Amino acid sequence: MGSRKTQLTVAVIGCGTLGTAIAAGILDPKDNKAYEIKRLVCTVGTESSQRRVETVFANHRSRLTVFTAEHNVSAVQEADVVLLAFKPFKRAEVFEVPGFKEALRDKVIISIMAGITTSELSRLSFGEQAVSKGEASLQSVRAMPNMAARIREAVTLYTSTPGTSKENIDFASWVFSQVGEAYPIPEKSFDICAVLVGCAGSLLLLAIDGLLDAAVAEGVRRPEVQNLVVNSAIGMMKLVPAGDHPGVLREKIASPGGCSIRALMELEKLGVRSAFTSAILAAAEKSKNMSSTR
């Protein structure tokens, strides 16, 4: 890929929720100076999903093709870049289809399969023997966006296989920058950071749901206070990257004899802080083990 505006064909294999969000970002990019998606080829599991994707991208019909999964090989063959967006437990099923591995050769591969390392991606593409002998050479990027890609406010972490060119890494960074912010990270830190990006939001949503339950218990309808709670939480969270440490902020809010300190004391009594820590560590351990579960 050169420095001038490059026209590319991208295949999205397993175009579910995240795959659709990323595809939407690159079809209608915030930054279209360097790259242009000439054609998008998507594959999905069912005919109903095929209709869904065609409907979502109705405005881009002239450069969109949507196949069902039995056409994965031909979709990859047509592409310059392949986004692997299917669930990680399906990887053996997808890679074992005759011709799929061969079709991936000389392609740029971007994988958003949770927990799948770059070495596992190389093994899937070339086989264990080729990887162990150092014969595998894959231009690939492993990434983990979160669900906020749907509204283009995702945080995406990415890392690459050794030998992946700067041009290909730059393209992957561009892809994820269209749906939010993209950050390179060493693979040794990937599992813990990925679950922080991918799981922390769901844990915070659980906390917000608990706060709303309290409102309902006090006689207030959930829809009446949902936006108040969510927007309040978003505002407070934005103070952290602005330079305030979470612990310092907490102390500023919890004035002596006030409501906040009583609520915080109750949470500490219930072990909420350590519960959050344990939850993330458990998720990170699951992520580390996913590449070895075949």
Explained architecture:
The chain has 294 residues and is an alpha/beta fold. It has two domains: 6-185, Rossmann fold (3-Layer(aba) Sandwich), CATH 3.40.50; 194-290, ProC C-terminal domain-like (ProC C-terminal domain-like fold, Orthogonal Bundle), CATH 1.10.3730.10. Helices cover 50% and strands 17% of the residues. It has 13 helices and eight strands. An eight-stranded mixed beta sheet has the order 3-2-1-4-5-6-7-8, with helices on both faces. Helix 9 crosses helix 13. The longest helix has 28 residues, at 190-217. The relative contact order is 0.10. The model has no long low-confidence stretch (mean pLDDT 91).
Summarize the entry for a quick read.
With 294 residues, the chain is of the alpha/beta class. Helix content is 50%, strand content 17%.
Helices and strands, with pairings:
Blueprint: E1 6-13, H1 17-27, E2 35-44, H2 47-56, E3 64-68, H3 72-78, E4 81-84, H4 91-95, H5 100-104, E5 108-111, H6 118-126, H7 128-132, E6 139-144, E7 154-160, H8 166-177, E8 180-184, H9 190-217, H10 222-238, H11 246-253, H12 259-269, H13 272-290
Parallel strand pairs: 1-2, 1-4, 2-3, 4-5, 5-6, 7-8
Antiparallel strand pairs: 6-7
Q: What labels would you give this structure?
A:
globular, single chain, 2 domains, 8-stranded mixed sheet, alpha/beta, 294 residues, NADP, oxidoreductase, ProC C-terminal domain-like fold, Rossmann fold, 13 helices
